[in-house]
Specification:
Layout: H1 2-39, E1 81-82, H2 89-97, E2 102-109, H3 117-127, E3 133-140, E4 155-161, H4 168-187, E5 193-197, E6 201-203, E7 215-219, E8 252-260, H5 261-280, H6 288-299, E9 304-306, E10 327-329, H7 334-337
Parallel strand pairs: 1-9, 2-3, 2-5, 3-4, 7-9
Antiparallel strand pairs: 5-8, 6-10, 7-8
Helix pairs in contact: 4-5, 5-6
The structure holds uridine-diphosphate-N-acetylgalactosamine and manganese (II) ion.
Length: 341
């Protein structure tokens, strides 16, 4: 009898104990889930350094009253539009120097476009993020044709071989896929921001930390004065790049864009997916990835816009609003350099 009671007590005790252990395990797995959600962020997340200055650092007093009056320097969603005269280079350099940033920069030179590399790289070394860390990723089908260009301090160049393609449109659009993979597989912890630039271009003036932002678009040099219905958006509803006549903010160039790794990853992934769906439906947007980029920027507003100073059409062309040309397309004969019409 006594033994029986003892056994019953023992069994009951065991049940209570295993119940307690179960609850405890369950609680700790709940806790773990919550911790994961809070602390494990995407590995490309932009670090938030704040815009810090220091006591005793002297620069010109910014004005509440004086600024550019001939151009808009802010969008209707309150993103800055960067023009000469809207920032203080001394101050902004000082702020960003503290952040120890790396700017990944991609450029593609396939087929005859390798001829643009010398001017592009040499002029970039004079004007592009001078004094900041830059890592160029150059994609080419002919690594042997890449000219020797002396890199400035903390600027490095990595050359990647990619297969050549028969259509210039495929080369241009294919950049989105390559950029997506580069960011996803290689740039986490390696860079803070990325810019993606056309190679048939040259730098003539400063392009530096004033251009940094979460998501950055450059206003196309041919359309900054045009009403939205004249923008060369894709107008066929069959394409995923379609934008109706009554919509649109600005017309952005496909020749330069950038931002944080996270935002540019999302941009490139979205454009790549949309282009694949278009291709499966046998349609190619009128201005290729530039059309998809414009669609993306319409519904994912850029946090900073660069004026056409950051991609001008031709160094010899002028416009009263353009006080300085920083980066410009070079004249090229498409029939001479492209693999197809
Ligand atoms: C001013 C502007 O907005 N330019 C855009 C425009 O024409 P573009 O005439 O500027 O296009 P493009 O001929 O410069 O091609 C775009 C880029 O693809 C690369 N490439 C192209 C062909 C080739 O054989 N080898 C090669 O490497 C190269 O990096 C070049 O800069 O439309 C293109 C897509 O329709 C892109 O959106 C361009 O950025
Ligand atoms: Mn170009």
């Amino acid at each position: 009898m006594l033994r029986q009671n003892f056994l019953i007590i023992l069994v009951l005790f065991g049940m209570v104990l295993s119940g307690l252990i179960y609850m405890n395990n369950n609680q700790s797995s709940c806790k773990q889930k919550i911790i994961e959600r809070v602390h494990i962020k995407p590995k490309w997340k932009l670090k938030n350094y704040g815009l810090r200055s220091s006591p005793g650092f002297v620069y010109q007093q910014p004005s509440v009253l004086i600024g550019r009056t001939d151009v808009a320097s802010v969008t209707s969603w309150l993103a800055p539009i960067v023009w000469e005269g809207t920032f203080d280079a001394t101050l902004i350099d000082f702020i960003y120097k503290k952040q120890n940033l790396t700017i990944a920069t991609t450029v593609f030179a396939l087929g005859k476009y390798t001829r643009f590399l010398k001017d592009f790289l040499e002029s970039a070394e004079q004007h592009y993020f001078v004094g900041f860390r830059v890592h160029y990723y150059l994609f080419t089908d002919q690594p042997e044709a890449v000219p020797e260009v002396k890199m400035g301090e903390n600027h490095i160049l990595t050359i990647r071989k990619v297969p050549s393609l028969n259509r210039w449109q495929d080369i241009s659009m294919g950049r989105m896929d390559i950029l997506e993979k580069l960011i996803e597989n290689e740039l986490a912890g390696e860079a803070d921001y990325i810019f993606c630039l056309d190679v048939d271009t040259k730098f003539y003036g400063r392009w530096s930390v004033e251009s940094l932002g979460r998501l950055v678009g450059v206003i196309h040099p041919w359309f900054f004065e045009a009403p939205r219905h004249l923008f060369t958006y894709e107008r066929r509803p069959e394409s995923l790049a379609y934008i109706s006549e009554g919509e649109g903010d600005y017309y952005f160039t496909g020749a330069a864009f950038g931002g944080s790794l996270e935002d540019v990853l999302h941009l490139t992934k979205t454009c790549r997916e949309q282009m694949n769906i278009d291709a499966a439906n046998s349609i190619e947007a009128v201005w290729h990835e530039e059309s998809h980029l414009n669609k993306y920027f319409l519904y994912n507003k850029p946090s900073k816009l660069l004026s056409p100073e950051y991609l001008w059409r031709n160094i010899n062309a002028g416009a009263s609003q353009i006080k300085t040309i920083r980066f410009s397309h070079v004249a090229k004969n498409n029939a001479d350099v492209r693999p197809n019409p």
